[in-house]
Amino acid sequence: MTTLPIVNVQRHTLSSRIAMSLSVVALMALIAMPWWADSGWIRWAVELSCYIAIAQMWNLLAGYAGLVSVGQQAFIGAAGYALFVLCQKFGVNPFLAVPLAMIVPAILSVPTYLLLHRLDGPYFAIGTWVVAEAVRLVTTNLDFVNAGAGLTLRVMTQYRLHEREVAMTILCAILLLVTVGGSYWLLRSRHGLALTAMRDNPVSAGSQGVNVSRLRFLVFIAAAVGTGFAGAIYYMAQLRITPASGYDPKWASISIFIVMVGGIGSIEGAIIGALLYFFADRFFSQYGAIYMVVLGCLTLFMAIYARGGIWGFVSSRFDAPWFPVGRRLVLPNDKGT
Amino acid sequence: MSGNPLLSVQGLGKAFGALRVIQDISFDVREGEVLGILGPNGAGKTTLFNLISGDLATETGEICLSSEKLTNEPPHIRCRKGIGRTYQIPKPYGGMTTFENLLVTAMFGAKLDEDAAHRSCAAVLRECGLADKANRRAGSLTLLDRKRLELARALAGNPKLLLLDEIAGGLTDQESRELVDLVRRIRERGITVLWIEHVLHAVLAVASRIIVLNFGEMIADGAPQMVIADPDVRRIYMGLEA
């Protein structure tokens, strides 16, 4: 057997090194917020982190695994409720309860996927919505979790505001590391290569050795856990959860808007979309129904005229990825970028 | 050519509703053989490939590779066991580069580690004339390059059996000759080839045996010159009087 010559493969670019440095600075700034920002800003940071995380998980699900879910609120509400129950009913430290609460969406995702995995496209989407509604109805009828009246996180009163803010910003930094950093790590790995192939052509990926059904199953569980993590943090910050808020279908709408407008199938797109939604929500939500109509029209416009979203538009003009997941073969006389 | 059967297809059958597209087809393919598959449109040639690669589930019959039964195995397992394939209508991963398209098969089909896959795919790209397009998005390639990519991607999986589905369609004479040379080199490496093709001179130049399908049934099986001279084949496939 002949030995093949060594080849050089480039995985980073100048733009990705800059983006990586800025990401580290942003995470440090987030953790340090209790010492330099007021409580209103910290609330905003928590909210934005949750939007980015939820959208990133939905992007992994719909943008790579081809599983368009409109029922991710099932995992948000389940993790939120798990956190409140662990703290209020079993006296678990709330900051320890956050990682423990992720067990519930992980467990819930297994039968959900096994039930729905034979469905395709719109049928799968409707199935996820039905499951989320079923979980909401079960929660509404459970006296153990105070039924439709919901739960309040009273244990948080034992901590000073500053302590809560320090814990929340650290949790948000971990959330972003796990969801955005985790997605980046996953997509750069060999499994990411398979996921990207699946995104482009699942039939072809199967015939080239990729176990499409197993990968979809694992992505579904990972997305449920990541979404649940964000849900637990979001409702911890709210200090209150009810079935109507925890399992609110608006979470699905937010995910779809962020990913479709930002750019499906890219880490950068979910971040851009989350920022856009966050600022639109801050400054235009006072316009009520008109604001929702504008967001809906923008999503529709992107779906028809710019499938790649904002990031797709930018990346088609400038080859400067923030989070490159590809492999560039460096050819002779090729200095790369 | 060692003469051992690499692929054995016995009593294969498939129907789409009331339409029987493959009917009780049986044949063996020996190691190192290049088997051409001919037949008019709708004869069931691509369906036969889909059954062998696992893209379609079989209804009756058995498929064995190196005496190992694969009939109920999913496509990714068949690929890992050594069945590589191309598609008649190319199915590249459009958002990935040409190089990355090959890496998927090398790392998941051939189970190579990352470094070995890089080296192997770079070599396959050179062999298939795609080295200068390694970093181009597959979705932006021309039809000819997409066909080359289909072949290169299948080769990246280091297959024992290669299923080629009309890769010469739309090529110029010069391109066809280059393709035939490439298939010869593939055969010389010991890879067994099943080749569906309408470009007769291309497949006849390299095939050691031909089978002909018509309405899902096998109507001829033998040496190329014998099959081409067969009155039924001339009438059904070539539209010539015997």
UniProtKB/TrEMBL annotation, chain A:
<feature type="transmembrane region" description="Helical">
    <location>
        <begin position="166"/>
        <end position="187"/>
    </location>
</feature>
<dbReference type="GO" id="GO:0005886">
    <property type="term" value="C:plasma membrane"/>
</dbReference>
<dbReference type="Pfam" id="PF02653">
    <property type="entry name" value="BPD_transp_2"/>
</dbReference>
<keyword id="KW-1003">Cell membrane</keyword>
<feature type="transmembrane region" description="Helical">
    <location>
        <begin position="57"/>
        <end position="84"/>
    </location>
</feature>
<protein>
    <submittedName>
        <fullName>Branched-chain amino acid ABC transporter permease</fullName>
    </submittedName>
</protein>
<feature type="transmembrane region" description="Helical">
    <location>
        <begin position="96"/>
        <end position="116"/>
    </location>
</feature>
<feature type="transmembrane region" description="Helical">
    <location>
        <begin position="18"/>
        <end position="37"/>
    </location>
</feature>
<keyword id="KW-0472">Membrane</keyword>
<dbReference type="GO" id="GO:0015658">
    <property type="term" value="F:branched-chain amino acid transmembrane transporter activity"/>
</dbReference>
<dbReference type="InterPro" id="IPR043428">
    <property type="entry name" value="LivM-like"/>
</dbReference>
<keyword id="KW-1133">Transmembrane helix</keyword>
<keyword id="KW-0812">Transmembrane</keyword>
<feature type="transmembrane region" description="Helical">
    <location>
        <begin position="256"/>
        <end position="278"/>
    </location>
</feature>
<dbReference type="InterPro" id="IPR001851">
    <property type="entry name" value="ABC_transp_permease"/>
</dbReference>
<feature type="transmembrane region" description="Helical">
    <location>
        <begin position="217"/>
        <end position="236"/>
    </location>
</feature>
<feature type="transmembrane region" description="Helical">
    <location>
        <begin position="290"/>
        <end position="314"/>
    </location>
</feature>
From TrEMBL, chain B:
<dbReference type="Pfam" id="PF00005">
    <property type="entry name" value="ABC_tran"/>
</dbReference>
<dbReference type="InterPro" id="IPR003593">
    <property type="entry name" value="AAA+_ATPase"/>
</dbReference>
<dbReference type="GO" id="GO:0005886">
    <property type="term" value="C:plasma membrane"/>
</dbReference>
<dbReference type="GO" id="GO:0005304">
    <property type="term" value="F:L-valine transmembrane transporter activity"/>
</dbReference>
<dbReference type="GO" id="GO:0015808">
    <property type="term" value="P:L-alanine transport"/>
</dbReference>
<dbReference type="GO" id="GO:1903806">
    <property type="term" value="P:L-isoleucine import across plasma membrane"/>
</dbReference>
<feature type="domain" description="ABC transporter">
    <location>
        <begin position="7"/>
        <end position="240"/>
    </location>
</feature>
<keyword id="KW-0813">Transport</keyword>
<dbReference type="InterPro" id="IPR003439">
    <property type="entry name" value="ABC_transporter-like_ATP-bd"/>
</dbReference>
<dbReference type="GO" id="GO:1903805">
    <property type="term" value="P:L-valine import across plasma membrane"/>
</dbReference>
<comment type="function">
    <text>Involved in beta-(1--&gt;2)glucan export. Transmembrane domains (TMD) form a pore in the inner membrane and the ATP-binding domain (NBD) is responsible for energy generation.</text>
</comment>
<dbReference type="GO" id="GO:0015188">
    <property type="term" value="F:L-isoleucine transmembrane transporter activity"/>
</dbReference>
<dbReference type="InterPro" id="IPR027417">
    <property type="entry name" value="P-loop_NTPase"/>
</dbReference>
<dbReference type="GO" id="GO:0042941">
    <property type="term" value="P:D-alanine transmembrane transport"/>
</dbReference>
<keyword id="KW-0067">ATP-binding</keyword>
<dbReference type="InterPro" id="IPR051120">
    <property type="entry name" value="ABC_AA/LPS_Transport"/>
</dbReference>
<protein>
    <submittedName>
        <fullName>ATP-binding cassette domain-containing protein</fullName>
    </submittedName>
</protein>
<dbReference type="GO" id="GO:0015192">
    <property type="term" value="F:L-phenylalanine transmembrane transporter activity"/>
</dbReference>
<keyword id="KW-0547">Nucleotide-binding</keyword>
<dbReference type="GO" id="GO:0016887">
    <property type="term" value="F:ATP hydrolysis activity"/>
</dbReference>
<dbReference type="GO" id="GO:0005524">
    <property type="term" value="F:ATP binding"/>
</dbReference>
